User: Which sequence fits this backbone?
């Protein structure tokens, strides 16, 4: 996800409303965390493949930026981390969780895209001297937004939770497709065309046929568009044709069946696109579209009211030029 400076005040106003919404959502849909413990919970979803499930919340001092999924894969010789959560402190907790399971060197830190809830924990791994890996457009995107990302997240998290957080740029760029070896275990990294963002990267563990999609896949948490709605829909169709034993979303459960997991998100994006196109044909304004487009999806997603209007705005700006 992304948060612009212009939205800081709005997000702070929504914090109370988001909390109220969360309190009435069925508990089965919410990952539960006892914050009295500093141990970050991880689940082994396949042999040697571990995932931490983030909370369905916006950034706050209480959650310290732990609002996305992150994972790690253990090979015979080394470990690869996939996303690092939203602050240095919660990144440290992720690193500690890895160390509870293995003492093998952390050789790679892979970022699936640029958004703060996936990359601001990178600094917690600097002592391991890994290769920081990302899409070939990730470095430019992070460099351009670094000041706003840091300022916004310091405001949202507070000084204590934010302490130690910094932007760590990639040292290895994936132009198209690249394979890394963890010792008897290969990960295939694939750079994608503009969809959720313009720097999305998919990771496949070939040993267990597990697909990490980052924020190309949302579940429960409403999707957020920071790239192209048409590109995202096209990519979902393309990805659905491949084979995988399971998929890890950027937001949602630890793992989901594939390709069935793609259907709710595709329905949401298609509904927004179809509604916006009709409103444009009817000569309606962006203001009118933001009040009606995609509202049939409200009951299907958490944090809908925090992000849906922004999605409609982004889609309208793209689709009015078709």
Assistant:
């Amino acid at each position: 996800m992304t948060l612009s400076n212009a939205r800081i005040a709005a997000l702070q106003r929504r914090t109370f409303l988001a909390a109220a919404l969360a309190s009435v959502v069925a508990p089965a849909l919410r990952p539960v965390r006892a914050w009295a413990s500093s141990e970050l919970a991880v689940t082994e979803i396949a042999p040697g493949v571990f995932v931490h499930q983030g909370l369905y919340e916006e950034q706050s001092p209480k959650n310290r930026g732990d609002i996305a999924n992150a994972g790690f894969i253990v090979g015979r010789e080394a470990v690869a981390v996939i996303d690092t959560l939203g602050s240095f402190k919660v990144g440290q907790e992720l690193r500690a969780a890895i160390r509870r399971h293995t003492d093998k060197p952390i050789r790679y830190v892979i970022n699936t895209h640029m958004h703060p809830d996936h990359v601001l924990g990178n600094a917690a791994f600097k002592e391991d001297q890994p290769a920081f890996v990302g899409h070939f457009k990730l470095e430019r995107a992070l460099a351009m937004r670094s000041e706003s990302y840091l300022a916004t997240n310091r405001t949202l998290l507070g000084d204590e939770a934010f302490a130690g957080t910094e932007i760590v740029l990639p040292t290895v760029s994936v132009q198209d497709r690249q394979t890394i070896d963890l010792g008897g275990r290969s990960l295939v990294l694939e750079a994608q065309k503009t969809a959720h963002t313009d720097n999305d990267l998919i990771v496949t563990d070939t040993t267990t046929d597990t697909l990490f999609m980052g924020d190309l896949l949302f579940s429960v948490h409403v999707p957020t568009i920071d790239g192209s709605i048409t590109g995202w829909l096209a990519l979902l169709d393309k990805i659905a044709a491949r084979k995988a034993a399971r998929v890890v979303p950027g937001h949602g459960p630890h793992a989901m069946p594939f390709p069935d997991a793609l259907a709710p998100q595709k329905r949401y994006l298609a509904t927004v696109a179809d509604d916006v196109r009709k409103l444009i044909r009817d000569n309606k304004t962006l203001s009118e579209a933001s009040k009606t487009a995609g509202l049939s999806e409200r009951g299907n997603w958490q944090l809908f009211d925090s992000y849906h209007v922004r999605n409609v705005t982004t889609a309208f700006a793209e689709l009015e030029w078709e």
Notes: The chain has a mean pLDDT of 90. The two ends are 25 Å apart (CA to CA).
